[in-house]
Amino acid sequence: xxxxxxxxxxxxxxxxxxxxxxxSLGTTKSLESKIMAENRPYMVYLPPSxxxxxxxxxxxxxxxxxxxxxxxxxxxxxxxxxxxxGNQVQEAIVIAIPNTNRSRDLTPSSLIExxxxxxxxxxxxxTGNAKQFAKFLENELIPTVDTTYRTSKxxxxxxxxxxxxxxxxxxxxxxxxxxxxxxxxxxxxWDNDYLNRAVNAGNKDIKFNSRVYFAFANNxxxxxxxxTNYEWGSTFAxxxxxxxxxxxxxxxxENETHGTVAFLAWYNGLKTLMSxxxx
Length: 279
Prior knowledge:
Blueprint: H1 2-19, E1 27-33, E2 38-45, E3 57-62, H2 67-81, E4 93-96, H3 102-106, E5 113-116, E6 119-123, H4 130-148, E7 151-160, H5 162-173, E8 180-184, H6 194-200, E9 211-217, H7 224-242, E10 249-253, H8 262-273
Parallel strand pairs: 3-4, 3-7, 7-8, 8-9, 9-10
Antiparallel strand pairs: 1-2, 2-4, 5-6
Helix pairs in contact: 2-8
């Protein structure tokens, strides 16, 4: 009985010590960009084994990388990549990129009024800077990450909504910058079916060589806007898949909307693109 009481007292008085320990998911850094003519912050997550091994790691670039998306995405990745959940995916470095001007940087064409069937969906001060933002990633941020951390050649771009539009456009314009793309419910409605028009421009046969996972939400509650966004997005995804030398897929989540699909897209996308069976 005395041993039991002693054990209980030890547990009682040591618990607060553990409760006060802080848990850190990553660090915040910044880069003075000449291309963007501004300071660009970003957050870095390093996998648990990084400090105790000499391994190189894939790098996942997370668009719309605010603190909440960073925490959520890293939580899914770390859970799936550790022994607790069976080491289902590879460990990876995550670089989350917060927005400084979202509509400016993530859209591939300039629009002041974004219209659909004659209806103005939204107005903007700045759009169409995707090409410059892509150059910032390729020529400034990625080289900085590669020289600072032990990175492998596997490089994944994750984008949702406008971020998905940007990722899809990067796949068309500069496909070799990233080896893999996780594209979540992209804004395919942008600029009158911009993505499909870009793929079909000049009747060129575009061949892809990147692994791509597309996730689409059920936005039928938005009427023609939601239905057309999925129709055009799925058509684009099919073009990529049919003309791709790498295994790619698209998945429709009937019970999820534009605002709720991200978690399942991260889970399924990571298992598709980051499977440990690919080593």
